[in-house]
User: Fold this.
Amino acid sequence: MTGNWIFAGVATVCFITGVVLSHRIEPGVRVEKVTLARDTPALKFIPAGAGPHPVALLAHGYASSKEAMFRYGEALAAAGFVCYSVDQPGHGASPRPLNAMDAAQTLEAGARQVGPVDVFLGWSMGGFMGGVAVRDVNMKPGLFIALGAMPVLGDHGPPLLFLAGRFEEAFPPALLKTRKDARVVISPWSDHFLEGFDPVLVNAAVKAACDQVHRTPPASPTAWLWRLMGVALAMVAAGALASGLTDLFSRLARYRGLFIGVFIAVAFFLTIGGLGFETIPHWRMQVIAMPVILLIAIVAGRFRVPRWSFLALSLVATVIAVCWFRASGSRPSLIFMASTIALMPTLMGGMVIAWFASRRGSRLQGDIAMAIFLGCAPVQLLQRPRTSPQAPKPRTAFKLDAKLLDACVGEFEIVPDNVFGVGTKVTIRRKGDHLVWEAIEEGAPRDILELYPESETNFFHNGGLMPRTVTFIKNDKGEATTVFHHLEGLGLGLPDSEARRLKSE
Assistant:
């Protein structure tokens, strides 16, 4: 009994130590919550020493929040920059719904308020929104760093640096290297999800930012390592403490899975802020997810399905998602791929927790602990952004004369923009009573759309999450010379892309 009390005491000390370590910040750096223009919540990273300091503006990716840029904000502040990491519309604590042009205008307004901005750094969707702000809203940073993104900044844009992992799913290194207007730095080990925490890419961003303002980069930050160790220590200690309590008090043994799951979930919420994730629980979705996961686990147990099969199934889903994205390049496939990739590490953690909880108990105890953790973690790490409710447009195909359809047929090339980042050629052909759009983007999969007429010049494609509208501009002879492509999905409010008929046509 004495040994059990000592074990519980040591676990408690380790838990507290882990929580403290998980919130350690680089020496000399202060972090404050501020509100910028257009009611934009932001984290302000303040360096030590007297000013003036150069300024950096940071923008997170889709389904994320301002906390996700903590590694970069902290490292840049340690190098002497005042950094602002903002919540984009529809994300985090922002009161505004998601819309691409509104997000771009919000970034420009924030840059005008805190600027001049010496460095802009955008991760994934943040890089896209920043590109729209530079190209279409006149934001003017001294250096643009795109992390896991490939924006087009226009003819008068700032110097551009691409940062990506070797296993980047959305914008493979081979595709990034086709751009002649940017430098590229590739980390040898990370993928799209890990790029926000990759020390190779963080150090490359700091060096480029310091070069931009003629400063010497400092030594690489180390506080993030302590935070990572703190998270691991706190979660392990929480599980050990819960297990020790059920050993000390025999009446609690029947609740072993519940105790371990709850303790680890509490440790998760107390520590993940140091890794750059929002710490306010999303109770509605999490309360729904936990019983669903538990029910699936119980049914699997009744049919003697091993737990590792869930991990194998997740791996198969990831492979399918990657193949789907490679084949179609569609946004739904990209979202599915990102979700499965983000699920893998949490599912592996859930398997370990389930094994630990059932080690001296029943499989049900392990299922309960796993359901609590998996019900919390994936929902917390990936939240669908808030968009304005949009009534679906009624779309009716219009019977169009074959000659009018043939006038739209031809070869076109899309002017590079922030939707189509590199040279994209489009072949439009007739197929019976409608048209087929086939886009081939350099280094990317084909994009094939069935286009149905709703007037002589307007055509639509109802593509599930990503419906499109294609508008043809014709000359005096009735031949299509220009095509405008409008992407309507996900409520992003994306700008139109323009395709011009090739001269050979």
Summary: The mean pLDDT is 89.
